[in-house]
Amino acid sequence: MSLDYWRNIEGTYPFQAENENDMLKLKEGHNPVNLSTLEKQLIGIRRHLHQYPELSKEEFKTTDFIKKCLAEKGIQIRPTSLKTGVFADIAGESEGPSIALRAVIDALPIEEKTGLPYASKHKGIMHACGHDFHTAALLGAAFLLKENQDSLKGKIRLLFQPAEESGAGAAKVIEDGQLDSIDAVIGLHNKPDIPVGTIGLKTGPLMAAVDRFKVEIQGKGAHAALPHNGFDPIVGASQLIVALQTIVSRNINPLNSAIVTVGKINGGSTWNVIPDTVAIEGTVRTFDSEVRNQVKQRFLAVAAQISSAFSLKANVKWQSGPPPLCNDEAITELVRDAAHKARLQVIDPDPSTAGEDFAYYLEHIPGSFAFFGTGGDHDWHHPAFTIDETAIIKASYFLYESARRLLDSSMQE
Fold first, then answer.
1. Among 182, 26, 210, which Cα is nearest to 102's?
2. Which one of 97, 333, 349, 378 is separated from 368 by 20 to 30 angstroms, measured CA to CA?
């Protein structure tokens, strides 16, 4: 990587070019770091992880690889009851707050179509959400923090979290006690529609609560030519799908946000038979806990009433996922200051209706979650998804500087 980005910013960025061999030294309070070497190392780490993706709760080799990277730097790994995931501490010599930095490590059941020379070697599995980027960036931050451990005023806990895509990983990490005694938590997610060098920081709701539903509509099958002999669940399901859309349009305050989407319908086996059952599945997205509960209650009422009107029975299975992700104002302002010091352009991003289980952490302790620009052509979960690797070192330094900023703050007072 060219050093153009890092040059001529003395006084605002702690890396200063020393010679043309890219040997950089951190300014006062920081130890020497060869930025070029570190960046190459992190890109290599990211490409290795990209070639060997693993699904949620199956990240065994990824876990071993992360442990090896940390152990080589002498970073203390914490015990855990979880089968996958890595947790570690870097403690300074002086007392201070305890700050957690979090990355996720799992991949998706998607066949990669990037054509990259380091494309996934695991058929049908891909890092299509950029968690390889997240992991490499946090490892880079860990290496910088370890190099400057003696100057840290408190403790950094590293959370390499498994199973984000399944929506259960963060809750398991909390149950495992990895958030115990932690004062604040910081995380980020790559954002392909934001250019490299730009970061999105926002106080309050940033990502949506995620709920999943499945409705099995029980009727009575009959010959298609004799519909009066049965109770048609296909007609009932059709009416229910339409009626569910009125929850948002007629029950939710227009100044609030909610989404009700039916993404799957399954029923029938042939053209001339009315089936006994039809099943529909979908998702609800909200940014407010009260709205979330209101949508659920209306959903249950509409399903019961529509099915009753057609002499059917609706069995609703509701699966609650992560709550709304709401950033703490004070922590976000500290992180915003760190982003400016890292020479990042800070923007106020639009909230995303996607969900993130980082929200579970924010139910327990204050924190901030950022959208980090990686400048790509495809969005999350696309088979051709990729990232601009020049963003990795920037993300590492952002996490490093954010951790130091929070440690140096008076947040414990």
1. 182
2. 378
Res. 5 pLDDT band, cuts 50 70 90: very low
- Looking at 199-208, 262-271, 404-413, which range is the least confident one? 404-413
**Integer Cα distance of 37 and 69 in angstroms:** 15
Q: Specify the pLDDT at position 130.
A: 98
50 in a known ligand binding site: no
- Name the band, by pLDDT with cuts 50, 70 and 90, for residue 392: very high
Tell whether 165 is in a known binding site. Answer: yes
Please tell me whether the overall predicted TM-score, pTM, comes out greater than 0.85 for this model: yes
CA distances, 97 to each of 102, 314, 399, 409 (Å): 16, 51, 16, 9
Render pLDDT for 6-21 as a digit per residue (tens, 0 to 9): 333 333 334 433 443 3
The closest of 391, 231, 402 to 311, measured between CA atoms, is: 231
333 is in an annotated binding site: no
382 is in an annotated binding site: no
Dihedral class, residue 130 (left if φ above 0, else alpha if ψ from -120 to 50, else beta): left
Residue 33 has pLDDT above 90, yes or no: no
